[in-house]
Fold this sequence. Notes:
Layout: E1 2-4, H1 7-19, E2 24-29, H2 35-47, E3 50-55, H3 75-84, E4 89-91, H4 95-98, H5 117-120, H6 124-139, E5 143-147, H7 151-164, E6 169-173, H8 193-199, H9 201-214, H10 220-231, E7 237-246, E8 260-268, E9 272-280
Parallel strand pairs: 1-4, 2-3, 2-5, 3-4, 5-6
Antiparallel strand pairs: 7-8, 8-9
Helix pairs in contact: 6-7, 9-10
Amino acid sequence: MILVKSIKELRTQVELWKNEGKSIGFVPTMGYLHEGHGSLISKAKSQNDKVIVSIFVNPTQFGPNEDLDKYPRDLENDKKVVSSNGGDLIFAPEVKEMYPSEIYTFVNTSVLDNNLCGIKRPGHFRGVCTVVSKLFNIVKPHRAYFGKKDYQQLAIIRKMVEDLNFDVEIIGCEIIRSDKGLALSSRNSYLTDIEKEESLVLNRTLNMLKEKIKSGITNVNELVKIGEENILTEKSTKVDYLKIVDINTMEDVVEVDRNVLIALAVYINEKVRLIDNIEIIKE
Length: 283
């Protein structure tokens, strides 16, 4: 496995592989890799000759009161995760490599970022789209892999690729969970063992709401009330949002009369914000 930190080195290696007729899969990450990232790398390896994993904690997607400085980092473990799942190259640039001077050009989005985390984290998706577009231009992959845990991000990137004619196929991959159902996340490292147990209420609530919909309850206000009450049965929880939205536009719906996403964000003891979701596909 190769580790490179400069754009020039990366481009040289990618050109070499492409000249050999190799297909390139790409997994963009912010590091502190876990089994969820490993599943993306493994999926990419199953569909491509070479897999590149970027590890870059992108400052432009963090707000002024968010955890940029505290965001967990462990490059040595990241190397093991990438290697064990079939990755061929890690691109781990410093901030000055990606942003050598003050940046004046950003990729803005609309509609898809007007709800859910877009409300709670203004400017976040502008930062995400900007850095992902830069990475796409640097790596020039054939396929790129994103987890469905960040479903809104996946929807926004798919639309960005369509609107801006990026020559890359976006692959959405299923959420990887612990044995008990907690969606894997780098931020889970902030949780105590007790808090991890309490956090299981997120997945339980999503599955409960899925069953309520199957039973015939389709009014969104009623479903949201049921879900919020269930989450608050754990004393450590504080609901940031629980919404049911159109799966394509991320806009609120009144009734579950189409394909929707149930999405939530919950604070655990007011210190760790976790997100999770579940797709409801009408048959």
